[in-house]
Amino acid sequence: MKMVQSVELDSVIGGDSISGTVINAFCNIIKLLMDAGRSVGSAIRRVAEGNLCPLE
């Protein structure tokens, strides 16, 4: 293994720009959009079939 001098340590760059937190937030957004689409689709189907709960 090569020994790195203190001066060279300032120029070391590593890692990815996408962290686990960013990936988790993206997955949560996708889940939220899927749930919203499922709810809207279910509401449209219930209105079309006339399966609404009475308001009285």
Task: Map the helices and strands.
Layout: H1 6-9, H2 20-49
Average pLDDT, all residues: 88
Strand fraction equals under 5%
Tell me the structural class: mainly alpha
Q: Rg to the nearest angstrom?
A: 26 Å
Helix content: 55-70%
Q: Roughly how many Å apart are the termini? A: 78 Å
Tally of contiguous helical segments: 2
Q: Biggest sheet, open or closed, and with what strands and sense?
A: none
Q: Uncertain runs with pLDDT below 50, 5 residues or more? A: none
Description:
It is a single chain. The chain has helices at 6-9, 20-49. It is mostly helical. The protein is rod-shaped. The termini are far apart.
List keywords for this structure.
single chain, 56 residues, mainly alpha, rod-shaped
Give a brief description.
By secondary structure, the protein is mainly alpha-helical. It has helices at residues 6-9, 20-49.
